[in-house]
Amino acid sequence: MRKFSTPLIGLIFLAVSCSKQDAKTTLEQQQPQETIAALPERRCASQEVLEQQLATDPSLRKRMADIEAHTQKVVKNRGNLRAAGGRIEIPVIVHVVYNTAAENISDQQVNSQIAVLNEDFNNRNADRVTVPVEFQDEQTSVGVQFVLDRIIRVQTSKKRFSYYADDVKKATTGGSNPVEPTRYLNMWACNLGQNLLGYAQFPGGAPETDGVVVLYSAFGSQSKTSGSYIANYNLGRTATHEVGHWLNLRHIWGDATCGNDLVDDTPQHNTSNGGCPSYPHLSTCAGNPVEMTMNYMDYTYDGCMNMFSNGQRDRMLATFTSGGPRAAYAK
Ligand SMILES: [Zn+2]
Q1: Which of 88, 222, 317, 327 has a Cα at 20 to 30 A from 142?
Q2: Residue 3 lies in a domain
Q3: Catalytic positions, written as ranges
Q4: Closest by alpha carbon to 329, among 70, 188, 149?
C-alpha cells in the first residue's frame, strides 16, 4: 500500500513547522522530575528533540531534506542497497553516566543490550515467531551488526538529565562527550526525568549530539542478566527503537493522527499504541487497516514488539549507501 507521493518532503517539514510553537511551549514548561519507578506507557523524545533542533538550527532542515531526497531515490531502486554484498558493522561506545550505584549498570547489563540489538536487527529475536501471519511477509532482518568497542564510565553530580538540554552528551554539564560520531554509535545510559525512556538524534543532526540516550533501567535485558531494570521496559527494546530513529526511522504513527512514517509497507496507525494490544487492533484511519502494533517503532511494552518491516529495512539501509549519512559504517 502506498501512503505518500510528492511533494513528500515539503509536507513533512510543513507539519513539523506547524507544531513548532506548541512544542516550544511544552519544552519550556517541562521540568525534570524525580526518578521514575514505573511508567504507564513508553515515551520517547526523539521527535521533540528534532523539533527543538529545527527551531534552533536553520541549516538542519536543508540537511534533512537532502537526506530524505537521497533516501527516497535509493529505496525506489533497491539495487542501490548494499546490504547483500556489503558488511555493515557498527562499533558502539556506551557511556554509563551515573549518580547512584544502581545507575552504574554492570558490564553484563551493557553487553546484554548489544546482544539484543544484534538479535532484533537480524530477526534472530526469540519472539519473532509471535508475529501474526498477516505481517510475516513484511517481517525482516536489517542485516546490521553491533560490536561493543568500549564502555566509558562517568560519575556525575546530576541526579537526572533532560532531553531538551541534552546535558548527558557534554562533559562540561555533568555528562560525557561523544567519541568520533562518524565512526562510532555513541549510546548514553543515564537517569532521565519526565517519564522518558530515551531519545535519539536523526541523521543530519550535529555531530556533537549524535547518538542515542536510554534510561539506565531500560538499558539491557533482564532476560539475559540481572541488574537495574524498570518493569515492562526491561528487554532492551528501547535501544532497538532509538537506534531505529538513529537510522532514520520515524514513529509508526508518523507523530500525527493517521500520520506518515515515510515507509510504504507499514499500515497507517491512528496514533501510538501502549501496553500490549490484543490482535487484531484496527486503525481508525482510511480503510481501517490492522495496525502493526508489534513493530519496534510503536510505543508498546518491550515484550510486545518484535519486528521491523521490509520498508523500514530499506529506509535504514539507505543511510549506509554512498552519499548517505551513515555511509562510513559500511565496508
Ligand atoms: Zn521514538
Answers
A1: 222
A2: no
A3: 242
A4: 149
